[in-house]
Every structure is written in C-alpha cells, then in structure tokens.
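Whiteboard transcription, Tuesday session. T.W. wrote the structure tokens on the left side:
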C-alpha cells in the first residue's frame, strides 16, 4: 500500500504533473481534516455516554487544544524542508517578536502554568488581585470568572463576567476558596449593652452556633487530613466558638464558625434569625447601638463630682 501511494506521489509530482508545493498543501489539508474528523467522532461517542456538563466542556476544550498541537507537529513534518531556508531569518526576528508580543507570550506561559500546576480549575472560587469569582472558562490567553462580592455582600454573585489575562497569575496574589481546605471561617459580631447579662448571652450564642454549624466539624477534619498530604495546613480547633471583647457602645460577642464558601450568606442568615428569636425571650439581654448618653451626677448620687 505504501509503495502504491509513493508511485501516485511520484506520478503527480513528475514533469508536467502537479507541482510538489501543491501536494504539500493537499497533504496539510488532508491531515487537518483527518484530525478534525477523529476529534468529532471521539466527542460524539463521549457525549452519548457522559451527561456531566463540566466533563463535556473539559473534553471539548482539551480536544481542541490537542488537535491544534498535533496539527502543528504534522505540518512541521510536511513543510520542514521548505522552511529550512527561513531559519536564519526567524532567528533575526525572534527577538523583535518576543518584545512585540511580550504580553501574549506571558499569557501563553500563564496558561501552561495553569494547566500544569492547576492552581485552580473550572468551578473553583478564586480571588486574584481586586477581583473574586467562580472560574467559568479557561483559554489560551485569558480565563473568565463570574464575579462575586464587590457591591454585593457575603460573597454572592454580581452577575458580571470578568476576563483576566493568564499572565496575571505571575504578578498577582491568588486565593482559592476550594483548594486544600474546602471551608472558610466566618465571623458574626453581635454587640449587647453593658447592662445586659453578657455571660448568659454568650452561653445562648454558643448554643445557637453549635446547633447550626457543628455538623461541619467532622467533614472539615477529614478535609484537613487530605490537604495535609500536600500543604502544611493544621488547626487545633475546628468547633464553633464565641469570643468576648469590649467596644465603645457595649460588649461584643463574636461568633466564629466554619461554613462552605457558597453558603456563607445563608449561614449568616440562619444564625441571625436564631439569635433574634433567642434574645427576644430574654429580659436581661439587649442589643447595643450607637447612642448619646447624658449624666446628672447630683441626681445619680455623685454630688461631689
């Protein structure tokens, strides 16, 4: 079969036949078409068996990159003889190209780093520089996030889509909400008046936060054991706790507890509703708020003052 194809090639490129350059174009087009057909067949078979949207997306994106890389390799094998005379020229202009396309090459290097080191993947919630959001797309020169936070409180989505150059991963700090430890610590400060029974209030708040968040402790401990194999992560206490401090207008009781990154606002709401219900039944506990207070020392028994 191979000998038969060589005979056809010699006949086509013989004198008065098809020029060799044209044959190179035909081979190139045929190779690319063949790779595209193979990719299409693979995707069709995969889509019939896989229903997971994220897995489908990953296969579509990675197969496209794979076809592009294989096409470059095949085209290089076909055309390498015709481009040998350009080596000197390409060497002279490579420095200029590197300067002119510096940002482009940096973004490409950033994409390779993201694919190789995997500091984040699709679906992760990250914060890079001034932007935070859920990663919804990763491409050769940029990745895309669905923004959270900003003017919207408690890390909920704003609805904006932000495109960030891949090269930023080398110059901006990156925070990943899901890598290593899949939970975040949330704090909820509650201030009561100085006249309130703060010990009783603290006991009630501890009970509230235990009932609403302590079920996450065992799961978090398992995640830490898994993460400790890759990162130096350790905590001595994962159970919820209430801290006491004093502010200008009262006693501040801060609830510290674990929550899932995407459920932070729901957790805060659930705890606040429980706190309002519990405090409403107590006559010796009042919320503090900014007030102006006047003192009459004579009527209060401080005549000397």
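and on the right, the sequence the group agreed on:
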């Amino acid at each position: 079969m191979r000998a038969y194809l060589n005979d056809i090639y010699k006949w086509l490129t013989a004198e008065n036949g098809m020029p060799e350059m044209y044959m190179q174009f035909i081979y190139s087009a045929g190779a690319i078409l063949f790779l595209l057909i193979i990719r299409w067949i693979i995707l069709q078979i995969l889509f019939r068996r896989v229903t997971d949207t994220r897995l489908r997306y990953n296969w579509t994106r990675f197969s496209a990159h794979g076809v592009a890389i294989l096409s470059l390799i095949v085209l290089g094998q076909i055309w390498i003889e015709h481009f040998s005379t350009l080596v000197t020229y390409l060497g002279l202009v490579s420095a200029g190209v590197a300067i002119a396309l510096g940002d482009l090459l940096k973004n490409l290097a950033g994409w390779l780093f993201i694919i190789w080191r995997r500091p984040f993947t699709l679906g992760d919630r990250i914060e890079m520089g001034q932007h935070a959001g859920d990663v919804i797309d990763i491409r050769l020169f940029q990745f895309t996030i669905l923004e959270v936070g900003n003017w919207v409180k408690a890390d909920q989505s704003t609805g904006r889509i932000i495109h960030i150059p891949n090269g930023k991963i080398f110059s901006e700090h990156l925070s990943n909400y899901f890598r290593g430890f899949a939970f975040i610590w949330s704090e909820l400060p509650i201030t009561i008046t100085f006249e309130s029974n703060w010990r009783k209030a603290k006991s009630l708040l501890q009970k509230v936060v235990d009932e609403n968040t302590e079920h996450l402790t065992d799961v978090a401990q398992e995640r830490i054991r898994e993460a400790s194999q890759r990162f130096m992560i350790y905590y001595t206490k994962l159970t919820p706790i209430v801290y006491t401090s004093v502010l200008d207008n009262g006693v501040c009781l801060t609830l510290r507890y674990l929550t899932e990154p995407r459920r932070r606002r729901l957790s805060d709401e659930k705890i606040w509703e429980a706190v309002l219900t519990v405090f409403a039944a107590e006559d010796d506990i009042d919320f503090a708020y900014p007030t102006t207070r006047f003192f009459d020392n004579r009527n209060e028994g401080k005549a000397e003052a």
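Someone added at the bottom: The chain has three domains: 2-100, 120-176, 184-280.
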